[in-house]
């Protein structure tokens, strides 16, 4: 068992690399494919307003899927997104980041509002009915899976990509946050 672990980790790494390669290559290799990442959605924001993708068109924005009970990846990523937005300075004043809840059962608009109060105010929480969320997940070709935990509770596995979408709601690329926020902001600034 112990010997198998490094192999398993290596295999997971390979799969992750494969996914990263697809994500990086798609926009260059096939514009039609890249532009089909995203797509229409109708969701409810943390203030209870019904919104669609059209409400965020007109300028470059970020999209991230997650859930408020996420122990690690989501809060870290939301903090990093906030750091990048901050590093953009005045140029980033109107840049929005959409946090689309993959756990609509627990993530009501009120739950999102309370959770997001700890993060940059440019991060908008979006949720909806399970069907509405599923449509958004499918549109962005994200991966989401509900996983039962030993204590009878559940957690959500989900894609942790930060999508950069342009003003026409076309997928540009995945924002790499594994670097100082200033570096990610410099790349993002070129797309604003
Ligand atoms: Ni998460």
UniProtKB/TrEMBL annotation:
Entry's transmembrane regions: none
Pfam families: SCO1-SenC
SUPFAM superfamilies in the record: Thioredoxin-like
InterPro entries documented for this protein: SCO1/SenC (IPR003782), Thioredoxin-like_sf (IPR036249)
First and last residue of the signal peptide: none
UniProt similarity note: Belongs to the SCO1/2 family.
Protein name: SCO family protein
């Amino acid at each position: 068992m112990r010997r198998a672990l490094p192999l398993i980790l290596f295999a997971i790494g390979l799969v992750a690399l494969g996914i990263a390669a697809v994500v990086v290559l798609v926009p260059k290799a096939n514009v039609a494919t890249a532009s089909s990442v995203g797509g229409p959605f109708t969701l409810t924001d943390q203030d209870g307003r019904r919104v669609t993708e059209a409400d965020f068109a007109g300028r470059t924005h970020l999209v991230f899927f997650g859930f408020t009970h996420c122990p690690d990846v989501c809060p870290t990523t939301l903090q990093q997104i906030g750091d990048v937005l901050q590093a953009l300075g005045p140029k980033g004043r109107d840049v929005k980041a959409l946090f689309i809840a993959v756990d609509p059962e627990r993530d009501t608009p009120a739950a999102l509002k309370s959770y997001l109060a700890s993060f940059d105010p440019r991060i908008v929480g979006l949720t909806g009915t399970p069907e509405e969320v599923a449509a958004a997940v499918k549109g962005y070709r994200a991966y989401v899976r509900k996983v039962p935990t030993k204590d009878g509770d559940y957690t959500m596995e989900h894609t942790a990509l930060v999508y950069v979408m342009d003003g026409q709601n076309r997928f540009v690329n995945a924002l790499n946050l594994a670097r100082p926020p200033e570096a990610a902001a410099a790349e993002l600034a070129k797309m604003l």
